[in-house]
Amino acid sequence: MKKAQWTGVFPAITTPFKQDLTVDHDFVGRHVSWLVDHGCTGIVALGSLGESATLDFEEKVEILETCVQSVGKRVPVVAGIAGLRTSECVALARRAADVGCEGIMALPPYVYKGTWPEMRYHFSSVIDATDLSCMLYNNPIAYGTDVTPEQLEELTSHENLHAVKESSGDVRRVTAVVAQLGKRLNVFAGMDDMIVEAVVMGASGWIAGLVNALPAESVELVKLASAGKIKEARSIYDWFLPLLRLDTVPEFVQYIKFIQQEMNCGTAFVRPPRLELQPEIAAQTRALLNEHLARRPSVRSRPMATAAAR
Fold first, then answer.
1. 205-208 and 8-11 strand pairing
2. CA 284 to chain centre
3. What residues are annotated to the active site?
4. Quick check: helix, strand or coil at residue 106?
5. Residue 49 above 60 pLDDT?
6. Tens of pLDDT, residues 106-135
7. 93-105: buried (b, 16+ CB within 10 Å) or exposed (e) per residue?
8. Distance of alpha carbon 100 from the chain centroid
9. Is the pLDDT of residue 5 over 50?
């Protein structure tokens, strides 16, 4: 995977579970293929939305294998790399390379909010673990670690660091990274409700959440914004925003999986400590979704293939 491939819409895929909460690999395969059919340019597995912290090591590797086998060489599969220990993350990055992933997304370590020298050591260890193209995931809201543009520049000494996922929630950070680093890294919007602003300020792509349920609208939105067709992009964005904002709350996994279920492209099953949406919240979310579907933009969407059809 080359730096130029870090562009467009990369779904941060949810991890589908069966009713017994084992991983549904058949659905993983159909889902990632469906997303690519809609024009997504990469697949990111094992991120925050993928409930990575609830998966054991071998489950993570098996999910990556399924993704790679399902999309082939159509788009790169990127492995989210996160864990409690740096050694665990290094081992996962190497296994990701072994099963055919073309990129990795390096997350801060779980739980521990260290000093910058400690975080620099952690990120550097993961980036250096393989020759794969790397994205650094900056999410101070969720992980308590904020990699500033100046600190990010220190990490560019690693030649295979090609991109950053910016999830501070502040579009000014996109501007600051571009100002600090120029074209050295490709910047991705990392929260659903900042994509048009981020593209205008220099972002090349989007690690997206609601794309799991609404890929046609997500891809069209980025195409229009990237082409400078802001008026046309706004017509979709204004429609989409109340749904996209569901990606920015603590229960974002439950909300997105619920919407997938409502759209017949997933189930709402989540692993504890998460629990599915309470009935009242689910009803409110269904009403919000149905209200927006009633005036859905006319963007061509493809139904997901059934298991039998494949």
1. parallel
2. 25
3. 137, 165
4. strand
5. yes
6. 999 999 999 999 999 999 999 999 999 999
7. bebbbebebbbbb
8. 19
9. yes
